[in-house]
Hints:
With 207 residues, the protein is of the alpha/beta class. The protein has a single domain, classed as Rossmann fold. The chain has helices spanning 2-21, 34-43, 60-70, 82-89, 129-137, 158-161, 185-201; strands spanning 50-53, 75-79, 97-101, 118-123, 142-148, 166-170, 177-181. Strands 3-2-1-4-5-7-6 form a 7-stranded mixed sheet, with helices on both faces. The longest helix has 20 residues, at 2-21. It comes from Rotaria sordida.
Amino acid sequence: MLVERKNKELSIHWLRIIKHYIRVPLDNRYGSHQLVLLATSILTSGGGPVLELGCGYFSTILLHQIIVVEQKRYLLSTDTDLKWLSKFKANISSSLHEFRHIKTTKEWDHIGTNHPRWSVAFIDHKPGKKRVIDLIRLANVTDIVVLYDTGTAGYKYETGLVVYPYRYRYKYLSTNTDVLSKYNGTLFRNMRLLLELTIEMQIPKLG
């Protein structure tokens, strides 16, 4: 009974947070990773820096607001498209938020080496073949990895997923997003709890 009451209270509080940061009904496609990024940002509050591989309206703006503005943490946002990257950089100004243009595919191999450890890494970059490579590369230096579009077989994520003992695929929205951790089981379980609560609550979604 006590557990049920606590879960109900948590659900109410979590729903309040979701509605504060994310538009409801939830975007069922390009923004399907928003809930996962929100949960990771909240649960790692007070933690280390955050790495964003691939910018987007549903990730960069949300991460800037929570990670940089509210939590005063360092955020590195990267992308291969300079024009696309500049759209975000032009409207966001903070010494804690760095934007980096990736000119060649090989440059991805060095992204993230400016910090010994990352609290969160979000993987959604081009070319697609680099995603699984960076998924493996970041496993030992990241507490939680958020991997977007995991239902697409072409990315061949399986090779990288086996590196992570803690894996959860969030399927409530059409485009799947994975939550992964190699070492932090406690943080992973808390992440999974929050995401599964959104399924129980049946938060409205588009489409």
